[in-house]
Model the fold of this input.
Amino acid sequence: MTLQIAMNDWNGRARELTASLGMDNRNLAPTHSLPEENSISGLNQPMVEQLKLLAAAVCFAEDSVVITSSNLEFPGPEIVFVNRAFTRMTGYRSEDALGQTPRILQGEKTDRAALERMKADLKAGRVFYGEAINYRKDGTEFVNEWHIEPIYNDRKQITHYVAIQRDITGRKQEEARLIYEARHDSLTGLYNRAHFMTQLQNAVERAKHSQDYLFAVLFIDLDHFKLINDSFGHQAGDQLLTAVGQRLQNSIRPQDLAARWGGDEFAVLLDNIEDLSQVSQLTEEIRKQVQQPILLGHPNPEVLTTLSIGIALSSMGYESHEDLLRDADTAMYRAKSQGQGRHAIFTRTMHEQVRRRLQIETDLRYALKREELRLHYQPIVCLQTRRIVGAEALVRWQHPTRGFISPSQFIPVAEETGLISALGEWVLRQACLEVRQWRALAPASAPFVSVNLATQQLNHPQIVETVRGLLETTGCPPEAVKFELTESAIASDAEIAVTTLKQIKDLGIQLCIDDFGTGHSSLSRLSRFPIDTLKIDRSFIQGIGASDNRSKIAQAIVNLAQTLEMTTIAEGIETPEQLSQLRRWGCDRAQGFWLAKPVPAETFKQFLIKNSTLPTQ
Ligand code: C2E
Ligand code: CA
Ligand code: CA
Done:
């Protein structure tokens, strides 16, 4: 009630009141001693006391308080009161502000729409909340957040407006900084994965509804980043990533978006593209710029980095951005597998292959449990005695609905997914159990079983223990087992491989290099490994009789093995000519369709019992 009276009468008495409180317009210094006597006419003492307190609260409030007249039309409301916080915030002392309109705070960047909304709200008698850029007396900007309340008289007419204002520049900057950090990668300054995902999601949604809108996603991986990081240190690695990030940003168009995906991976959204040729052209532009030599700073050398790029196009019709990213990633791996500095575009065929692979992966997990795998054995024959001396164990998968699946299809999947460990262990256990029986059936010829060992299995830290355990539990003599390794198994991580192979050899197991001649094993490396046998790759055997270089290589391998005191097996014998030629060269053993195809365990046992001689003329 008291306040209402005071407000109704404010216009006429404001100056009187503030003057009486020692807070008049010329004196904004804080004053805590309020005058005693009642100098305001028409109010009783308790009312005046209350008014003084309220006025003091307004004067000293932390927020800026401005009271204006109610005239909204030109020249606008007149400022009749400002408090100290207003002066602090704007630099305008009250004598500068009084009699002016709040327009003194407005300027070039002030949001006109907000002002229009304000006017409309105020005219309608509503409280207005808003924020806009305002200007201090010295011309500097700040973000002003304010709300305005209309003040009514007894006749329900608006007589004044009270505006409470606050400088929120700091808060806005902090908000902006947080938003920036949430969207950017701190090292490269590019957008981060989260922001990229959001933008991509929008693009996918847009593409669903608009036929003409096309975009592409590039998934980019730096070739050899690990090598650079390991050789020159993390700081150099960071420099490289930053440089790549900058170049990436410089090589794209304004509408495109480049992001750091994580590690040495980047992603680019090529927005609004016209056709495939434009994608290729933009991709090449990126490659051209990023693949320039990069200076890592003293003492590091200049490095050249190449990019493997996987591309997915929105024209494939994606339901979700995750699907699109998955395909770009698949294409990137395809590009990488084709060599460095390549790009690959995701296609329907690739999609089909991926789908099939995924299916194999899922089914393979069950195959082991449901006992859908079998081992077949392909006889290995001694070229001198013509007798069977052993067999290679070859895994077979009889899928319940899809029939026979070739090991060439599922072994690589098993290797990629790590299922190879379980699968390999199963194969080895079966083979060990089997060869024990063979030795009982044909003690004189003491047949061996040859088991293929995937590189991943060899690199498994527990491999030696696993093998030792299997030999024990199956009661299989170690000399009855041979491991077939690929050349790549001894090419990678040579030190570890040497140690592991020596330990396996110490168990009593023999070692054979499979598909010999197709890999990259150097002779010096070969001599460091405890290898017993070289298995000449099928492709060289096929050259025999064709009188080309392949045949000469086959002969050279036989000679090499003799020099290194290793034995030789020729695989893939399909003709009697191949066989007799190999015998003449001094090759020890042979295996191939012409001798015998891989057969089930029972059949192989029959061969042994009959003490069969296979056709070796
Ligand atoms: P690989 O080790 O080179 O095995 C020899 C492959 O050549 C076998 O194919 C065999 O059936 C085939 N072969 C044998 N003689 C002839 C011939 O005269 N002519 C022709 N054209 N081919 C012949 P398979 O059984 O399809 O195995 C393919 C590959 O799968 C194997 O190649 C091996 O790398 C892998 N593999 C098979 N079983 C296992 C296993 O238990 N573990 C692992 N890690 N890999 C296995
Ligand atoms: Ca083999
Ligand atoms: Ca082979």
The two ends are 124 Å apart (CA to CA). The pocket of C2E (ligand 1) is lined by residues 378, 393-395, 406-408, 411, 424, 427, 452, 454, 484, 514-515, 538, 572-574, 592-593, 598 (CB under 6 Å). Residues 348-369 form the longest helix (22 residues).
